[in-house]
Amino acid sequence: MLAKLNNPRNVAHDVKWKRVVPPVLGVVIVVLIMVIGSVTPLVSILNPSRGVIQNSRNLVIGNQTYDLSGLQNSVNIIQDSNGVYHIYAQSAADLYYALGFIQAKNRLFQIEVFGFEGMGQMSTFFGSSYQNYDRFQTMTGAPLTAMSDWSTVLSDRSTNSTDATTATALLSYAQGVNSYINYSESHNTLPLLFKLLGVQPYYWTPVYSYAVQEVMAQTLEFGDTGLQFSLIYSMIGNATYNLIPTFSPVQSYYYDGYSGAPNATVLAE
After folding, report:
1. What average pLDDT does the structure give for the chain?
2. Cβ–Cβ < 8 Å for 159, 75
3. Residue 15 and residue 17: Cα distance in Å, rounded?
4. d(Cα 152, Cα 207) in Å, to the nearest integer?
5. How far apart are CA 224 and CA 245, in angstroms?
6. Could you tell me which residue, 212 or 251, shows the higher pLDDT?
7. What Pfam families does UniProt report for this protein, alphabetically (predicted)?
8. Are the beta carbons of 119 and 208 closer than 8 angstroms?
């Protein structure tokens, strides 16, 4: 049998390196991730101070206190067992400020996408593939309508109490959203999708709130029926009204259990 003799000095040297290499290798890997992450958005989510780990800490819900500039008085926000937030404030301005802050904390990327969608600026986040959509949205007049609506509120708020209330609500809400943007940037807790796309959030303004209103209106009732009707009318004139009645001759009821009598058209048939 062959016996292998080891020099005690070499054995000690090997043990020393086995102890040193893992931590050194770990430090090198972390440094590489941080350097590469600053250049590549996809890899940046691995950055220990800015990536997934930091975002996961922001998901922990507990008793938290924020020192926010812009609030007139302290505001309490309570989240119940169903995840619903209850805001207790001493003024309408503080209430809407808190609403903007907490909504941004939970849905910043979503509301910013909605804002860009309404203003025809989606390509800012998602690249040139959205330029046609942005062009279409601009042609619908949604951005112009949003700017016009806010301009009207600003000009009339001194004489119209409803516009004054609206202006206070929208300005305070925007301030709350922007306050969270500043907070999340300083604490490296921007939503993960911003990091994946390599984009920065934009500051909210009341115009974007009106732009979201335009998006919701389009979602509920936008269609090309009017365009089709106009095209047919240009070809056959007033006969269009006989071919496609503006209102259906058959009465429709939108909920079960309606006991009203049928209209005259149905009875005649």
Report:
1. 80
2. no
3. 5
4. 11
5. 16
6. 212
7. Penicil_amidase
8. yes
CA separation, residue 257 to residues 33, 224, 267 (Å) = 64, 32, 20
Block residue for tokens 């809400």: 173
The predicted-structure confidence for 141-197, as pLDDT tens digits, reads as follows 899 999 999 999 999 999 999 999 999 999 999 999 999 999 998 888 888 888 888
Q: Are 203 and 171 in contact (CB under 8 A)?
A: no
Task: Give the helix/strand (H/E) hosting 15.
Answer: helix 8-37
Q: Which residue is listed with tokens 């300083």?
A: 186
Beta bridge partners of 87: 77
Beta strands, E only, the chain: 76-79, 85-88
Identify which of 148, 152, 179, 185 has the alpha carbon closest to the alpha carbon of residue 166. Answer: 152
Task: Give the C-alpha separation, 59 to 53, whole Å.
Answer: 10
pTM strictly above 0.70 = no
Q: What is the CATH number assigned to the segment(s) 68-222?
A: 1.10.439.10
Neighbouring CB atoms inside 10 A of 89's CB total: 20
Q: Count CB atoms within 10 A of the CB of residue 70.
A: 13
Type of residue found at 14: D
Residue pointed to by tokens 């996809």 = 42
Query: What sign does the CA torsion over 186, 174, 76, 194 have?
Result: negative
8 A C-beta contact, residue 100 and residue 107: no
Alpha-carbon distance 169 to 150, whole Å?
12
Of residues 67 and 156, the one with the higher pLDDT is 156
204: tokens are 């909210």
Q: Which two tokens stand for residue 8?
A: 């005690």
Phi, psi of 132 (to 5 degrees): -65, -40
State the amino acid at position 221 in one-letter form: E
Burial of 113 (0-12, 13-18, 19+ CB in 10 A): middle
Q: Please list the residues that pair with 78 across neighbouring strands.
A: 86
